[in-house]
Amino acid sequence: IMGCTIIFYEDRNFMGRHYECMSDCADMHSYMSRCHSCRVESGCFMVYDRPNYMGNQYFFRRGEYADCMSMMGWSGSIRSCRMIPMYRGSYRMRIYERENFGGHMHECMDDCDSFMDRYHMSDCMSCHVMDGHWLMYEHPHYRGRMMYMRPGEYRSFREMGYGGMRFMSMRRIMDSWY
Fold this sequence. Notes:
Oligomer: single chain
Shape: globular
Structural class: mainly beta
Strand order of the largest sheet: 2-1-3-6
Radius of gyration: 16 Å
CATH topology of the largest domain: Gamma-B Crystallin, domain 1
Order of helices and strands: EEEEEEHEEEHEEEEHE
Number of domains: 2
CATH class of the largest domain: Mainly Beta
Largest sheet: 4 strands, antiparallel
């Protein structure tokens, strides 16, 4: 298995103290008080602006991010991060119009740039990820705020803290992104 490494820096342009992370980190505050840039040396990661993988999320693949706070549009800091394991296999997710798997259901096996265009679905409030790792987006065409979905049941996006947010597109996190 290829290792995954992300290095967080206190200041923009990779300055100040740094913290190297190779797995999940539920609270980075114990390592550094702020984070304004990062470098992903290998792998893919989700970062969060609250501890314990809560709050706003942002996806990083290999590359350098000299001013990630302004790029993400966040006012706070990166507080936790989750390593996304590389996956090679089939992708399958069921999206539901209502909470607790209610309303219309659609089974997806590939990227969808607009739930409205493809499924005539104006709201998606729960989902069941059977296979693969996915990113869901607030707007069509993979724009806006995002949420990382790994295999499992997500009965209520509202109860997960996404009350005012709609998800309108989604894409698979592919092994070619590594």
